[in-house]
Amino acid sequence: MIIDGKGLSNHLDSSMKAEVKALHKVGIEPKLVVIIVGHDPASQIYVRNKHRKAIKLGITSIIERRPEDFTQDELLALIDQYNRDETVHGILVQLPLPKQIDETAIIRAIAIEKDVDGFRPENVGKLFNNSEGYYPVSCTPKGIMTMLAHYQINPKSQHAVIVGDSNIVGRPMGALLLNAGATVTYTHILTKDLPSFTRTADILIVATGVAHLVKGTDIKPGATVIDVGMDRDANGKLVGDVDFDSAKNVAGAITPVPGGVGPMTITSLMQQTLELTKLATRKTLEPVK
Amino acid sequence: MIIDGKGLSNHLDSSMKAEVKALHKVGIEPKLVVIIVGHDPASQIYVRNKHRKAIKLGITSIIERRPEDFTQDELLALIDQYNRDETVHGILVQLPLPKQIDETAIIRAIAIEKDVDGFRPENVGKLFNNSEGYYPVSCTPKGIMTMLAHYQINPKSQHAVIVGDSNIVGRPMGALLLNAGATVTYTHILTKDLPSFTRTADILIVATGVAHLVKGTDIKPGATVIDVGMDRDANGKLVGDVDFDSAKNVAGAITPVPGGVGPMTITSLMQQTLELTKLATRKTLEPVK
User: Where does the record place the Tetrahydrofolate dehydrogenase/cyclohydrolase NAD(P)-binding domain (chains A, B) (predicted)?
Assistant: First the structure.
């Protein structure tokens, strides 16, 4: 079975469109600000795709482009401006940032109620502690959970193996799966005999940035394989971290690249923009004690 | 090899005593407040042991005992009093709390600079993201890392298996081991075929509260086995989550119960009290921009 992230993303658009329309009717205009510094080519594509999706859904999208030599103080001032702007509900700073800017400081400068990427330590801590209540979560793992739910793949008591333990994908992915009742193994660059782990996975999440790292022989027959990679092969073709051709006949379900995880990441971003909009405007209407 | 947590804890006392003495000389008096609500017998013992260790080291220790029917608002007011008290450097609320009190709300009420247990979401998030800089971490896993380092057991590229995924022990333990370069597997009550995981562990951490859950046959020969359990067997004897008698001949290194993890938890608490004291007083002397 091919997990059609693109199709699911488009399917979820209609309900989000309706939600935006309903918010507009009561005078609420969901607004997302995306800040991009420099000219990383992949980042340019991601930002463009986010903007297009927002427009399609009726979400107001502002892209702030700044040059490669933009300073940290200038970026902090820009964030501060949007933190104080009550018409803005989500602020996203596209990573990676140029060398002169400290990503950690930038992430912590975004107001917690506008942290649409869920990268602030408070939101990460709530995720890792499986806290109650709403908090934003890193968009790629969130989108993967939405895909698993839609395809009725329940992680409870399954062995989920994460390959790659980045703060943006691997670590929050493991936390979400642990919170859903999975047994979770984190593997990474220092792991010895990686295939001995991947072969025991009922759900295998690969997020390493290494083209075709995982082959069909590294996969347990029938497993669900989620490929987060967006790599280029020797011919410049867009491929994943999983060797799709050898993996597709072993896996029970697998995401393609492109058309798998990528579109769902953007869908999660839009969902979280709407959640933060509702939280912010509800707070205005009914002040919390 | 038996890992002597009690001995290591006593060994570390001398350097902490010297540190407290040096702080006293410059007019700084490290002070820890422990709040205990109700009469849970295990909690009474833990609090007494913490108090004794603080006294031994020269740390000022205040125990605030409150009755079982103490309300959440009363507890919040007590915490607020110590948050505003500049002579206090660490505040610990002994868990569990009686049913009428929301633990999450209490944890988040402690000022972040006095969160000596490292339970606030900001500190948990920093741990999970392997952030730079100092932040307090849950004391039991921190003490286990200190033991591993002292016994020169390097987690890098080792497979660490955590049994029990609580927010106080299992989850932060896995994060610390992941940050140290281990491959980490979280297992728990929903895990299928637990021994199939424990038998692959180079480092096995058991924190379930189930007496003698893990037997010698569940352990990989030569593994390091850390037993966080403090359970009572049928005869009322204090035992661990690991069946020590069958495990000690299989494990390469193992902690006893009592005398293993318990004393190191208290040592970590004292270390973190001193760290927070130094941070708070340094801040007074050299204001951060």
Answer: 138-278
Spatial distance between the Cα atoms of A257 and A241, rounded to a whole number of angstroms: 9
Residue B283 has pLDDT above 80, yes or no: no
Tell me the ipTM for this assembly: 0.96
Nearest CB to A178 within list B120, B159, B165: B165
Residues in B touching A167 (Cβ below 8 Å): 129-130
Partner-chain residue, chosen from B124, B156, B182, that has the shortest CB–CB distance to A129: B124
CATH class of B139-261: alpha beta
The residue of chain B nearest to residue A108, with distances taken between CA atoms, is: B122
A51-79 pLDDT tens trace: 999 999 999 999 999 999 999 999 999 99
Instruction: Say yes or no to pLDDT of B285 above 60.
Output: no
pLDDT tens per residue across span A166-209: 999 999 999 999 999 999 999 999 999 999 999 999 999 999 99
| CB-CB contact of B162 with B185 (8 Å) | yes
Residue B202 vs residues B183, B253, B254: alpha-carbon distances, Å: 10, 10, 12
Which residues in chain B touch residue A171, judged by CB atoms under 8 angstroms apart? 128-129, 178
| Contact (CB<8Å) A128/B125 | yes
Whole-angstrom Cα distance, residue B191 to residue A157? 5
Say how far residue A95 (Cα) sits from the centre of its chain: 12
Active site residue A94: yes
| A142 labelled catalytic | no
